[in-house]
Amino acid sequence: MQALRHYLLAVQFFSRIPVAGRLAAWVGWSPEMQRASAAHLPGVGWLVGLWAALLLAALLWLLPASPWSPLAAALISTAGTLWLTGGFHEDGLADVADGLGGLVPPERALEIMKDSRIGAYGVMALLMALLTKVVLIALLLSVMQPFWGPVPVLILVCCIHVLSRFAPLVLMRSLPHVGLAASSKTLHIAGRQLGWQGLLTGGLWCLPALGLLGWLGVWSFVPSLLAAMLLTTWLLQRWLLQRLGGMTGDCLGACQQLNELALLLASCIYLRQLL
Q1: In a domain, 33, yes or no
Q2: pTM above 0.90, yes or no
Q3: Residue 157: C-alpha distances to residues 121, 243, 251, 269 (Å)
Q4: Which residues pair with residue 247 across a beta bridge?
Q5: How far apart are CA 204 and CA 262, in angstroms?
């Protein structure tokens, strides 16, 4: 039951899905529970991924047959996931781009990242990330659907939402929190190093996703995705350690977004080998 409470706290924190009233009272809250809920971030990814896949499936069925249909479906599905999460991770990416886009000292970078206003670097990073995401999903649909139908793409998109949310847990395990404690919204989540048990919990949420990808019939695809995640997370970790000396809650959001893009790109590159 405690694990369910932690999961519902994660759903409440990382999405717009309502956990209120008697359910919220039953779940409860404490700094320790909020910290433990971070391990269930990939579990929240299942809800976001299923929502994205459902939107894609509905739109592909409703839209007329046209070369533009995959792009329209990818665009509206991405907008739907933004609504469900409140742009939580995208906001982190924009803040990190603003703070670290210029050559400023770590102290100044942290101040910029906590500023609620978005700057030029943040706008550019956000636009490029969203455009790249939409284009890559549309590319997967355009190429895969004529050969295998939409189901493999729907599974892939769903699983990518799950796997990309494991990467922030690696940062929480390997980097200290250096955010401004007085104004940090994620201090209870990331203010203390994540234990091995939390990392294991997140990994367990990812196992069904890896199994589904293997079920598609191409087991060699799974190592390619894991390699893309490992490389992206390692490069980001080194960069944050060099620029900030650690990570903040915004860095966790940026990590999820960059890994989502890396997994989509790796999928497109791998797909070329099959055709």
Answers
A1: no
A2: yes
A3: 27, 32, 23, 15
A4: 177
A5: 21
